[in-house]
Specification:
The complex is a heterotrimer of chains A (about 375), B (about 500) and C (about 180). Chain B is mainly α and about 500 residues long. In chain B, about 75% of the residues lie in helices and about 0% in strands. Chain C has about 180 residues and is mainly alpha-helical. The chains are: A mainly alpha (about 375), B mainly alpha (about 500), C mainly alpha (about 180). The interface of A and C includes residues 156 and 160 of A.
Chain lengths: ~375, ~500, ~180
C-alpha cells in the first residue's frame, strides 16, 4: 500500500501544485508580456488595475470567467468543446518530466519520498516532443469545429506548420542526446553538472531547437495560424469565455515548456548560473546551489536558478514578438523544409563525426 | 561475432544504391532522357553482373550476413539465379521504355530509378529466410510497381491500374503481416529455419498453437497467391496488366512472379521439410489453387479481344502451371519451377514487347486483336517473332515453353498427381486455342485498316525481340544447357 | 493491478477502433483512431516499453493522424461524409455480400481470439513489470528503452533497418511522382 500511494498520491499532489503554479505564472506572464512590449515600443502598458497594473491579470481572469460562452450555431459541439481541453491538457502533461531541482533536493515527508520532478522516465525529452505533437489536434480540431472559414484556414495552417517544425524540433536535440548519452531530463542536467553546459557544445542545436519551438508554439514571428490581419484571430476566432481562456492557457504553458526544455537540455537546468564553467572552481557552484543546507535549501536554490533561467529564455519570446514582422506562409514553409531540416541533419552528422574524432584523440 | 560480408548484400546493394543515386541526379539529367536511359541500363547491367560473377565464382554456397544468430540475408545459388533473372528482365523491359513513353507522350524520367529499386526489392525477397525481411522486400518491390503502373497518367486506364494495384496490394500486405504475427505467436520465431523446427514440435502437440500456425501460414500463402495472381486472388491482374504501361507490364508479369515463387520455394518446402504433418496440410491447398488458376486463367483468356488483356489472363494461367511445379518434391520441383521461370521470362517479355509497339496516334494502346490482322504481309519479321512467342506460350514444340510444360507435366504424373497432370494437359490445350488465334489472325487474315503508328521497329525493341526469340528457341532445342545447372542447384537445396 | 490497467486500455483501444468504422463523420473517425492509438501507447507503457510508447504517439498520432485530418479538411468531406455512398463508383455490393463479409471477419476474429486465449501464459519481456514496481520491487526501465532498441537496430536488425529507410524513401518518391502535376 505504501508504494502504491507513493506511486500515485505523491505525483498527483505534485501535479496539482505544479498546475496551480503554472496558472499563476501564466497570468503574470501576460502582464509581463504587455509591459515588456510596451517598454520596447516606448509605451506605458497596463497601469490602471492595482499598483502599476499588478492586479490586471486577476481582472482579466474574472472577465474571462464571466464572459458569455458562445457556441456557433453550426459548430460541432463535442469537438468544439474537446479542442481547447486537448491543447491545455497536452501542454500541462509535458511539464511532468521537467525537473526543477537536483536529486539532492529530495524531501522526505511522513515517510514519503518527494522528488523534485513528477516523474523521471528514461525517454523524458522524447516524451515531451510526442506530447506536444498531440497538441496540434486541439488547434486543428478547434478550427474545424467552428464551422467557419477563418478558423478552418487557421487550423489548416497550424497543422502544416506544426508538422513541418516538429521534424527539426526533434532533430535539433539529437546532437545533445548523443553527447550526453541519455534522453532523461534529470540525467542530462546531471551530465552538465559534471561537464559543462551543452550550449557550448551545441550552439547550432540550441538555435534550431528554439526557432522550431517558437514555430511549434505558433508565436511571432511564426504566428500565422492566428494572423489577425488575414484570418481575424485564426483557429480561435469563434471561441470566447473560458474555452478561449483554455487555448490561451495552452499556448502560454507550451511557451514555458519549451523554455524549460531549452534550459534543461542546454543551460544546465537547476544548476546555478556559472556559464558551465563551474567545474573549474567547484566551490562556487556549490555555494550558489546551497550545498551547505539540507534538501529544503537545495530545493529552494534549484527552483530559483531554474525559474530564473526559464524566465530569461521566455523573455526572448517577448523580445521576438516585439521585434520581428510575421513570415509569409510560403516563406515559413521554405524556412522549415529547406533550411531547418537540412541544417539540423548536417548538424547531427557534424556532431557524430566530432564525437568520433574526440574519442579517437582521447584514445 | 561473424564479420559482416558485404558481398552477400551486393546483389541488392547494387541496384538499390544505383537507383537512389540516379534519383539524386535525375533532376540534372532531366533534359537528356537518352542519357538517363543509358545510365540506368548500365545500372541494370551491373545488377546482372554481380550475381552472375558470384555465381561463376561458385564459392557462393550459402555465405550469409547479419549479426548475430540467424542471418538476415542469405546468399545461395537459388537467390543468385533469381537475381540474375530479375536484372535481365529489368534490362529487357528498360529497353522498351523510351519508345513506349515517347509515343504515349509521357515524359516520366522517374521510371528508371523506380525500375532499379523494384529489382532491389525482388533481390531481397529471394535472398532471405527472415519473415521481417520478406515483408520489407515485398514492399520495396511493390511500391515502385504501383507507381510505375500509374506513370502514363494521360491514360485513364493507367491511373485505374495504379489505384487498384495499390489498394489490393495493401490488403495483401496486411494479410502477410497478420500471417507473420500469427506464425510468430505460434512458434516464437521469425526465421523460417527456426519456424520450421518449432512448427514440428507445435504440430506434434497440436492444440491452439497448431491452429494459430495454420492460420498464419494460410494468410502468408494468400498474400503470395495474390502477388503471383493465382485464382481466386487474381482479380487485380487483368486490369492492372492492361492499364500499366506495356514495358512495366512485361517487367511486372515476369519479375513479381519470379520473386514470389522464389519466396514460396523457401517457405513451403522449407517448413514442410521439418514437419511432414505440415506438408500434408498445405499440399491440398496449393493443389486446389493450381487447378483453379490453370482452369480459370485459360478459360477467361479465351474470350478476350485485346491482346494485352489476353496475355494478362495467360500469365494467370502460367502461375497455375508454376504452382503445380511447386507440388513436386523439392529437388525436382525447384528445377522445373526455375526452368519454367527462365523460359517464361523470355517468351512473356517478347510477347509484351510486340504489344508495346501497338499504340494509337494519341498514345493509347492499340492492342485489339483485329489490329494484328495480316501483320505477316506488312511486317513479316515482327509477325514471325510474335508467332514464336505465341507458340512457346501455347507449349508447342520445339519452343522453350513446351519443354517447360513437359517437365512439369511429367513430374506431376510421376510423383503421384495424375489428376492434376490431366487438368494441366486439358488447360494447356484450351490455352493453345487463343494463342493460335493470334497466329491465324496475323498470318491468315487480310490486312485491314491502318497499321498502328508505333509499329516501326527501332533498334532497342528490336534487340529485345531478337534476344527473346532466339533464347525461346534455344531453350526449347537445348534445354539441357539450363536444366543441368538448375538441377544441381535444386538438388543442393535443403530447406533453410 | 496490471490486469486492471490493461483492461481499461484495451477497452479504450477497442472503443476507438470501433468508433473509426462506425462514425459517419470522418473527423470523428480520426478522433476514434487517436483514442485507439493513444490507448495502444498506454499498453506499451504497461509493458515498460516507454520508448516504443512515445514513438507510437509521436509517429502515429502526431504525424500520420494529423496528416489524415489535414487531408480530410482540405477535401472537405464534411458534407459528403454524411452520405457514405455518394462518392462510390461502379456497382454496389449487395447487402448479402456485406453481411457475409462481416460474418467472415467476425468468425475469423473469434477463431484467432479463441486460439490465443487457450495459450498458456508465457514469459513476455516487460510483463508484470508494473506490478513489480508497485510492490516496491524496483526493476523496470531496463527493457524497451532507448539503448536496447538502438543496440538491436544497429546490430541484428541493421539490414532490415536500412531497408526500411529505403522503403520509406521509395514510398515518398512514389507519392510525389503520382501526385505532382507539372505546371
Amino acid at each position: 500500500m505504501q508504494t502504491f500511494l507513493e506511486a500515485f498520491l505523491v505525483p498527483a499532489i505534485q501535479a496539482v501544485v505544479v498546475v496551480l503554479l503554472m496558472l499563476l505564472a501564466v497570468a503574470y506572464i501576460t502582464l509581463l508580456e504587455r509591459k515588456v512590449i510596451a517598454f520596447m515600443q516606448v509605451r506605458i502598458g497596463p497601469n490602471r488595475v492595482g499598483p502599476r497594473g499588478l492586479l490586471q491579470p486577476i481582472a482579466d481572469v474574472v472577465k474571462l470567467l464571466l464572459k458569455e460562452d458562445i457556441v456557433p450555431a453550426k459548430a460541432d459541439r463535442f469537438v468544439f468543446w474537446l479542442a481547447p481541453i486537448l491543447v491545455t491538457m497536452t501542454a500541462i502533461a509535458a511539464l511532468a518530466v521537467i525537473p526543477w531541482a537536483g536529486t539532492d533536493a529530495t524531501l522526505h515527508v511522513l515517510g514519503y519520498e518527494i522528488r523534485p520532478v513528477i516523474t523521471d522516465v528514461n525517454v523524458g525529452i522524447i516524451y515531451v516532443l510526442s506530447i506536444s505533437s498531440i497538441g496540434v489536434f486541439g488547434i486543428v480540431l478547434g478550427g474545424w469545429a467552428s464551422h467557419s472559414k477563418y478558423p478552418l484556414l487557421g487550423g489548416l495552417r497550424s497543422a502544416a506548420q506544426m508538422i513541418s517544425y516538429e521534424v527539426p524540433l526533434g532533430l535539433a536535440i539529437i546532437g545533445a542526446l548523443m553527447i550526453a548519452e541519455t534522453a532523461s531530463t534529470v540525467k542530462i542536467v546531471e551530465w552538465q553538472a559534471r561537464h559543462t553546459w551543452l550550449f557550448w557544445l551545441q550552439p547550432v542545436g540550441v538555435l534550431l531547437f528554439y526557432i522550431a519551438g517558437v514555430a511549434e508554439n505558433n508565436r511571432a514571428p511564426f504566428d500565422l495560424p492566428e494572423a489577425e490581419s488575414e484570418l481575424v484571430a485564426g483557429f480561435h476566432t469563434e471561441y470566447s469565455g473560458m474555452k478561449f481562456a483554455f487555448f490561451f492557457l495552452g499556448e502560454y504553458i507550451s511557451m514555458i515548456v519549451v523554455s524549460a526544455l531549452v534550459v534543461t537540455i542546454y543551460f544546465g537546468g537547476w544548476l546555478p548560473i556559472t556559464f558551465g564553467l563551474g567545474y573549474l572552481v567547484p566551490a562556487i557552484p556549490a555555494a550558489l546551489s546551497g550545498a551547505w543546507g539540507g534538501p529544503g535549501v537545495h530545493l529552494a536554490f534549484g527552483v530559483f536558478w531554474f525559474a530564473l533561467k526559464t524566465f530569461l529564455v521566455l523573455y526572448v519570446y517577448l523580445w521576438l514578438r516585439a521585434t520581428f514582422p510575421r513570415y509569409r506562409y510560403d516563406q515559413l514553409m521554405e524556412v522549415g523544409w529547406k533550411f531547418m531540416i537540412p541544417v539540423s541533419l548536417a548538424w547531427i552528422l557534424f556532431t557524430g563525426v566530432a564525437l568520433l574524432a574526440f574519442d579517437a584523440l582521447a584514445a | 561475432m561473424p564479420e559482416f560480408e558485404i558481398q552477400v548484400v551486393l546483389p541488392t546493394l547494387v541496384p538499390a544504391a544505383y537507383g537512389l543515386l540516379l534519383l539524386l541526379f535525375t533532376p540534372a539529367l532531366r533534359d537528356d532522357r537518352r542519357w538517363l536511359w543509358a545510365v540506368s541500363l548500365g545500372g541494370m547491367a551491373l545488377a546482372a553482373f554481380f550475381p552472375a560473377w558470384l555465381l561463376f565464382r561458385a564459392g557462393a554456397t550459402g555465405e550469409t550476413a547479419g549479426l548475430p544468430g540467424r542471418p538476415m540475408v542469405v546468399m545461395d545459388p537459388l537467390s543468385l539465379w533469381l537475381d540474375l533473372l530479375f536484372a535481365i528482365a529489368g534490362f529487357l523491359a528498360l529497353l522498351l521504355v523510351p519508345a513506349y513513353l515517347d509515343r504515349a507522350r509521357a515524359h516520366r524520367p522517374e521510371i528508371y530509378p523506380l525500375m532499379l529499386l523494384a529489382v532491389a526489392g525482388m533481390t531481397i525477397l529471394v535472398a532471405t529466410t527472415n519473415l521481417v525481411m520478406i515483408f520489407l522486400g515485398l514492399e520495396v518491390l511493390s511500391i515502385p510497381l504501383y507507381v510505375m503502373s500509374g506513370l502514363t497518367r494521360e491514360r485513364e486506364a493507367s491511373i485505374e491500374a495504379a489505384f487498384k494495384y495499390f489498394l489490393l496490394g495493401a490488403v495483401a500486405a496486411a494479410f502477410l503481416v497478420y500471417g507473420i504475427a500469427l506464425v510468430y505467436a505460434a512458434t516464437g520465431h521469425l526465421d523460417l529455419g527456426d519456424v520450421a523446427t518449432a512448427a514440428g514440435a507445435v504440430l506434434e502437440t497440436g492444440g491452439a498453437r497448431a491452429g494459430l500456425l495454420a492460420a498464419g501460414l494460410a494468410m502468408i500463402l494468400v498474400a503470395f497467391a495474390f502477388k503471383v495472381g493465382a485464382v481466386p486472388f487474381h482479380f487485380w491482374a487483368p486490369d492492372v496488366y492492361q492499364g500499366a504501361p506495356t514495358p512495366v507490364t512485361a517487367f511486372m508479369a515476369v519479375g513479381t512472379k519470379a520473386a514470389a515463387f522464389g519466396v514460396l520455394l523457401r517457405l513451403l518446402p522449407g517448413t514442410a521439410g521439418a514437419a511432414e504433418a505440415l506438408a500434408r496440410r498445405w499440399l491440398p491447398v496449393v493443389a486446389a489453387l493450381a487447378v483453379a488458376t490453370m482452369v480459370g486463367g485459360n478459360l477467361v483468356a479465351l474470350v478476350q479481344v485485346r491482346v494485352k488483356r489476353m496475355l494478362a489472363w495467360s500469365s494467370i494461367a502460367h502461375a497455375g502451371y508454376l504452382l503445380l511445379a511447386l507440388l513436386a518434391p523439392l529437388a525436382i520441383g525447384a528445377r522445373n519451377l526455375l526452368f519454367y521461370l527462365v523460359v517464361y521470362t523470355f517468351m512473356t517479355i517478347g510477347a509484351f514487347a510486340v504489344v508495346s509497339l501497338f499504340q494509337e496516334e494519341e498514345g493509347d494502346d492499340a492492342d485489339q486483336l483485329d489490329r494484328f490482322a495480316g501483320l505477316w504481309k506488312r511486317r513479316p519479321l515482327l509477325a514471325i517473332a510474335m508467332g514464336i512467342f505465341m507458340l512457346s506460350l501455347a507449349g508447342i514444340p520445339p519452343m522453350g515453353g513446351f519443354t517447360g510444360k513437359y517437365v512439369i507435366f511429367v513430374t506431376a504424373l510421376r510423383t503421384g498427381h495424375p489428376v492434376l497432370a490431366a487438368v494441366m494437359g486439358l488447360a494447356a490445350v484450351v490455352g493453345a486455342a487463343y494463342y493460335l488465334r493470334v497466329i491465324t489472325t496475323m498470318f491468315l487474315r487480310e490486312p485491314s485498316g491502318e497499321l498502328p503508328a508505333g509499329v516501326s521497329v527501332s533498334l532497342a525493341p528490336g534487340l529485345v525481340l531478337a534476344v527473346s526469340a532466339v533464347l525461346t528457341i534455344v531453350l526449347g532445342l537445348a534445354p539441357g544447357l539450363v536444366l543441368g545447372p538448375l538441377g544441381e542447384i535444386a538438388s543442393g537445396m535443403i530447406g533453410p | 493491478m496490471e490486469l486492471l490497467v490493461f483492461s481499461i486500455l484495451a477497452g479504450l483501444a477497442l472503443a476507438g477502433a470501433i468508433g473509426v468504422i462506425l462514425a459517419r463523420n470522418p473527423v470523428y473517425s480520426a478522433l476514434g483512431l487517436l483514442l485507439g492509438l493513444s490507448a495502444v501507447a498506454g499498453l506499451f507503457v504497461v509493458l515498460w516499453a516507454e520508448f516504443i510508447a512515445v514513438v507510437q504517439l509521436m509517429v502515429y498520432a502526431g504525424g500520420v493522424l494529423v496528416l489524415f485530418l489535414f487531408v480530410i479538411m482540405l477535401v472537405d468531406l464534411e458534407q459528403r461524409g454524411l452520405d457514405t455512398d455518394a462518392g462510390r463508383i461502379g456497382p454496389q455490393p449487395s447487402p448479402g455480400w456485406r453481411v457475409a463479409a462481416a460474418m467472415l471477419g467476425i468468425l475469423f476474429t473469434v477463431f484467432v481470439g479463441a486460439l490465443l486465449l487457450q495459450e498458456p501464459a508465457r514469459e513476455v519481456p516487460g510483463a508484470g513489470a508494473l506490478d513489480a514496481v508497485l510492490r516496491g520491487g524496483g526493476g523496470g526501465g531496463a527493457l524497451g528503452n532507448l539503448e536496447h532498441v538502438g543496440q538491436l537496430l544497429y546490430t541484428s536488425y541493421l539490414v532490415p533497418f536500412e531497408l526500411a529507410s529505403v522503403l520509406l524513401l521509395v514510398a515518398m518518391i512514389g507519392a510525389v511522382v503520382l501526385a505532382h502535376r507539372e505546371r
